[in-house]
Design brief:
The chain is α+β, with helices and mostly antiparallel strands. It contains 22 helices and 13 strands. The strands form 4 sheets. The chain has a 6-stranded antiparallel β-sheet, with helices on both faces. It has a 3-stranded antiparallel β-sheet with strand order 6-8-7. A two-stranded antiparallel ribbon has the order 1-2. A hairpin with a 2-residue loop joins strand 9 and strand 10. The longest helix has 27 residues. 49% of the residues are buried. The N terminus and C terminus are likely disordered.
């Protein structure tokens, strides 16, 4: 369920690329992405083309045999090879265009183009057992030329970048040389029809090394290139009339001193590619920012209005965690108690000692589900309870932590049902105990009576946009997303649905389908930032929420990067920073939404939008607004308090 998942968005400092012409930037990025596509295509060729040849062995036969004279796979390999060549030529041109004054990088681009073109005229070899002929000899010559050009590209690539890329390139060259030599030793056995049990392995290791180097080079250059969205001129349009656009309308209020927030919000539409969005902030219990603007739908002119709501994906998790905080304050739920105290069936399969704190801190290892979910199953809470209770942890609980993408909300749902004397669902509990007392328009399970025109539609994530986002997505997360066996990738298969599907929004998915306004979310966090008395939150409960997280290591084994969770909330840490002190707590959502409470600054803040992006942290749209809010608070706060806040922030960021 990718819409929930991995975007711990906008949580630390960021820099803005120097703008260039938007069209040129887009073309350059497309050319660079061709390098990634070429590697993916070649991998697909290595996997699927051999399937067309019964008896072919990828371990004991070379790649070249797939295109050998009279090989049954030759026509398909040659056809796909032409497409691969076009992609590599495009990538080489992109590398050349990215070089600027960097001569070494220009050589890399030229060598890649030459290598691809030479490949168009690659002489085929004969099948095994055929005496070496002129064409076989030329094939060997072409292989040596290609290997030398690969080495040349990597050598100049090592000179074009810094130490880390240089070391990586040299290591890849060593692999190419070593396994290339092993392949060469086996080459004479092919015409003699002698066994070559490892030649296919050696050759594929070499190809994998080169293809990965392609991808790393492409991602490195994409990270250096400016974003097309970030390079747009002011005045992104919401409608077009006769070729002329109209400025994006922005409405709402800011309190005196917070005018910069409105200016940054307007810049989101003019310069950062925003479609429709809202931002709200409550400071010291008073609303100081309440802005909305843009279009409610990605395609069309329907405006985002004051009452427009939107699904906020995993930002829902923070509001769901608030329900457990209410239950804790009332003495119904002890964070330190085993989950099985309230839910005896949960003790199955090694979970008897898992505490509520470990579960809410993403330490229980319950990332995966052993069956695919449907909307019908989600509506049957008793069925879901039985299914969840039988799950087996992916690691010994309490020894590691990793983001429970979808499952955490399902477990929170059943915990509330178990501890609430009225056995209400989490969505109903939130409505009765939090939304109604605070007069919030936020729903976990959208009521059918809410009209469609009040709900914004998301521009969802796509593979193409994901490729464009490689330049700012952490490589570790990218690798886990594309690895079929990774916990992150497997955690998404639990529920396959469209976040714009009204049927999905009307069921309760506490991990990711909450629908509401930025105003409502900020107000909820403001109540907690002010101590929570409005909701009956006790000082002890708030102290537990704001205490430093006790976690089994900083590295998130699901995301592959550090993360910090406690009692259902994301917390600040050395590599994930928000708020004015370590006591802040909140939740981000896939695509860019983010909300949190800062008790020390007495701030409740929320940003929501309908254009999803791939930033794991530092979405420029949200970060610019959050920074502007804190600059306003700094200007309006006595100097001694500013010193305290800055000092706390700096201490948090020290390793």
């Amino acid at each position: 369920m990718a819409e929930h998942g991995v975007a711990m968005t906008s949580l630390s400092r960021t820099t803005t690329a120097k703008p260039v012409a938007g069209g040129r930037s887009m073309v350059l990025q497309v050319l660079l992405i061709c390098g990634i596509l070429s590697s993916l295509l070649y991998v697909a060729m290595l996997v699927f083309v051999p399937m067309q040849w019964e008896g072919y062995s990828s371990a004991s036969q070379t790649v070249s045999e797939l295109s050998a004279i009279d090989a049954p796979t030759r026509p398909l390999w040659v056809l796909l090879g032409r497409i691969y060549t076009v992609l590599v030529v495009a990538f080489g041109l992109g590398v050349w265009a990215s070089a600027g004054p960097n001569r070494a990088l220009r050589v890399v681009g030229g060598v890649l183009v030459a290598n691809a073109i030479i490949g168009l005229f690659w002489p085929p070899m004969h099948l095994r057992g055929v005496q070496v002929t002129l064409t076989d000899t030329l094939h060997i010559v072409w292989t040596m030329i290609t290997l030398l050009l690969m080495m040349l590209a990597m050598g100049f690539g090592a000179a074009a970048f810094g130490k880390r890329f240089r070391v990586y390139s040299i290591a890849t060259m060593v692999i190419l040389f070593g396994f290339g030599a092993l392949t060469g030793l086996d080459a004479p056995k092919i015409p003699a029809d002698l066994p070559t049990p490892w030649v296919g392995v050696w050759e594929r290791i070499n190809m994998a090394a080169f293809l990965v180097w392609f991808v790393v080079l492409a991602v490195t250059l994409l990270r250096r290139s400016p974003s097309p969205a970030g390079s747009r001129g002011r005045g992104v349009k919401t409608g077009r009339k006769g070729g002329q656009g109209v400025r994006t309308p922005v409405a709402g209020m800011v309190a005196p001193g917070f005018e910069e927030v409105r200016a940054e919000f307007e810049r989101n539409f003019a310069e950062r590619g925003e479609i429709g969005a809202a931002v709200a902030a409550y400071w010291r219990g008073e609303k100081v920012v309440d802005l909305w603007g843009g279009r409610r739908t990605p395609d069309g002119d329907a405006p985002w209005k004051e009452a427009t709501m939107v699904v906020v994906n995993s930002t829902t998790k923070g509001l769901a965690a608030m329900t457990l905080a209410v239950a804790n304050a009332r003495g119904w739920l002890d964070y330190e108690a085993p989950v099985a105290r309230y839910w005896p069936e949960f003790a199955q399969n090694g979970k008897a000692t898992v505490t509520v704190r470990q579960l809410l801190g993403h330490e229980a290892g319950l990332v995966l589900l052993d069956e695919k979910l449907t909307l019908e199953k989600l509506r049957d809470f008793d069925y879901m309870a039985r299914m969840l209770a039988r799950q087996t942890p992916a690691w010994p609980p309490g020894t590691r932590h990793g983001y429970h993408t979808l499952s955490i909300g399902l477990y929170m749902q059943e915990l509330i049902r178990r501890v609430d004397p009225a056995h209400r669902t989490l969505g109903r509990f939130f409505h009765d105990e939090i939304a109604v007392p605070l007069d919030l328009e936020f729903y976990i399970g959208l009521p059918p009576e809410i009209p469609e025109e009040r709900v914004a539609r998301l521009r969802t994530l796509s593979m193409w946009r994901g490729l464009m986002a490689l330049r700012y997505t952490p490589p570790a997360v990218t690798m886990k997303m594309i690895s079929p066996g990774s916990l992150l990738r497997r955690s998404f298969v639990g529920l396959d649905t469209d976040p714009n599907d009204r049927r999905y929004l009307e069921v309760e998915v506490a991990a990711g389908n909450g629908v509401g306004t930025a105003r409502a979310i900020a107000r909820a966090y403001s109540a907690f930032a002010e101590g929570g008395a409005e909701l009956g939150i006790t000082p002890g409960t708030l102290a537990g929420i704001t205490a430093p997280p006790v976690m089994a290591g900083a590295l998130d084994v699901v995301l592959g990067v550090p993360s910090y969770f406690s009692l259902g909330f994301l917390r600040p840490g050395p590599t994930v920073f928000f708020g004015s002190s370590p006591r802040a707590f909140g939740a981000p959502g896939a695509g860019g939404s983010f909300a949190f409470a800062d008790p020390d600054a007495r701030l409740g803040y929320a940003y929501v939008m309908n254009k999803m992006d791939f930033y794991l942290e530092n979405d420029p749209r949200e970060k610019a607004l959050r920074d502007a809010v804190y600059r306003a608070i700094a200007r309006l706060t006595p100097w001694t308090r500013v010193v305290e806040m800055v000092g706390a922030a700096e201490s948090l960021q020290r390793p």
